[in-house]
Amino acid sequence: KNEVYFIKYIATKDELWIGTNNGAYKWKDNKLMNFQTSEGLADDETNRSAFLYNEQDGSVWIGTIGGVSIYQRNLENLYSTKPILNIDNVLVNNKAHGEDYSKLESIDGNATLKFSAMSLYNNPSINYETEITGLDSEYYNEYTSASGIIEIEDLPVGFYELSTVALDKFGNKSDKVKINLNVSSDNRASNFQVIIIILFILGSTYSFIVWRKKYSLNKRPEQEKSLPNAGEKTYCINIFGNFTIVSPNDGTIEAKFSPRSRELFLLLLIHSFNGNNLRGISSEKMSKMIWEDSSTQNTKNKRNLAIKKLRELLSENLLGSIVFDSDRWIIKLNESVSFDYPEWYNLREKFKDTIFPGQNDIKDFLKIVGKGNFLNDLSYQWIEEIKIWHNNESVNILSRITREAGLDIDLRFEAGKILNSIDPLNETEIKYYIKLLYDQDKPSQAAYIYEQFCNEYQDIFGKKYKKDLTEIVSEK
């Protein structure tokens, strides 16, 4: 908010002048112009009633706490001169491109544009706007930046024209600079099209003859590839250990997901299957966690594009769908998809009961956490606390299993082994596991675990562990 020190109207010029603590303002022809030190004003704070209009030359005298400034009419054209916009760099497919922007190819839908603009009076106040032609009407197609860097993510397959302008603080726009961008699912496939066509032509006659011969000798009904039966688990998603998505036909397919699609997929998965009554994630929370540094409009555009791309990936790979229900985004997996996270969550609830779970539940839990720590191979700023919580929960349950005297000793050994692998510096639990092995006449294994712990301790803390093996074993 500005404090107003004077308001002066010049009838012959049909313009209004306002002096404030944030510079002088001129209102003319429905256009508001602000003059500060960056435009030559002696100081941003004007003095009260310190205004004089010279009718002879049309100049305006404005008093400030830093001195008197004179606004000269013959310099007005400076404030209506449009900025000059230049493309500094375009990054597509993690590769910088030269001066030819007429046809750029992208296989991941991402592009980073870097611009600079020159203005005759105030470079720091220039803003940049990029408009994308070719997007569906349901998406925002404008990106804004004050730094000159425009980051575009997860554009769907298609051809786009990216038009950018620079705007100064008085609303003057530069000429448009256009970049053409073609997004393909994977343009590497086109390199083999000619070879494939030739091979098809050469082999089509032979294949037809062989097929006719087999068909005439042994006519069989045509078998078509069918979808999984209801309830049959043929796809698998794992987030304990390394993140993997396994398809019955293609093997691991997580590489099909771009880094942003993968991050969004995990965010939705965790919030859709976390065992809480309020499931899913709001648009606001999603945007804050993934696109924290983006403006509101840019965030909404990036979010919508990322969700659309993820929906296509889930549909193409028969994994599930994304729904927006009660202001929250939720992933619904198909019945054919097994997912270790809700299984872990359900088993965790059973360990809360006073009655210890049965051996089958314990085996299932050990099978899940035995793959490794929660999302062991991925790291995002928003997920670190989530990872710590899940790993601590797993360690607490493993500790209970290891200490359950009436439990099968092999299950207790297995729990201790897993605990040692996912939390190798947990001194209390490692000491208990070593003593358990020693008490069960497994001194060589106990010595091996002790040596591993000492080596890890030395690597992390830079000093030797304070106790030897005999001290640990003799502790009560």
Account of the protein in words:
- The chain is α+β, with helices and mostly antiparallel strands.
- 34% of the residues lie in helices and 26% in strands.
- A 5-stranded mixed sheet has the order 10-16-15-12-13. A 4-stranded antiparallel sheet has the order 1-2-3-4, with no helix packed on it.
- A hairpin with a 3-residue loop joins strand 18 and strand 19 (251-252).
- It is elongated, with a radius of gyration of 34 Å.
Please give the structural blueprint.
Layout (H helix, E strand, L loop, with lengths): L3 E7 L4 E6 L2 E6 L2 E5 L10 E8 L6 E5 L2 E5 L12 E9 L2 E3 L6 E3 L4 E8 L8 E7 L8 E4 L3 E4 L5 E10 L9 E7 L9 H25 L17 E4 L5 E4 L3 E2 L6 H14 L10 H8 L5 H21 L3 E6 L2 E6 L3 E3 H11 L8 H11 L14 H20 L5 H14 L4 H13 L3 H19 L7 H6 L2
Parallel strand pairs: 10-16, 17-22
Antiparallel strand pairs: 1-2, 2-3, 3-4, 5-6, 6-7, 8-9, 8-11, 11-14, 12-13, 12-15, 15-16, 17-18, 18-19, 20-21
Helix pairs in contact: 2-4, 5-6, 6-8, 7-8, 8-9, 9-10
Structural class: alpha+beta
- What's the N-to-C terminus distance? 70 Å
Mean pLDDT: 83
What's the assembly state of these chains? Answer: single chain
User: How does the major sheet shape up?
Assistant: 5 strands, mixed
Rg measurement, Å = 34 Å
Q: Report low-confidence residues grouped into runs of 5 or more.
A: 187-201, 205-228
Give the beta-strand count.
Answer: 22
Order of strands in the sheet with most strands: 10-16-15-12-13
User: How many DSSP helices?
Assistant: 11
Strand content: 25-35%
Helix content: 25-40%
Shape descriptor: elongated
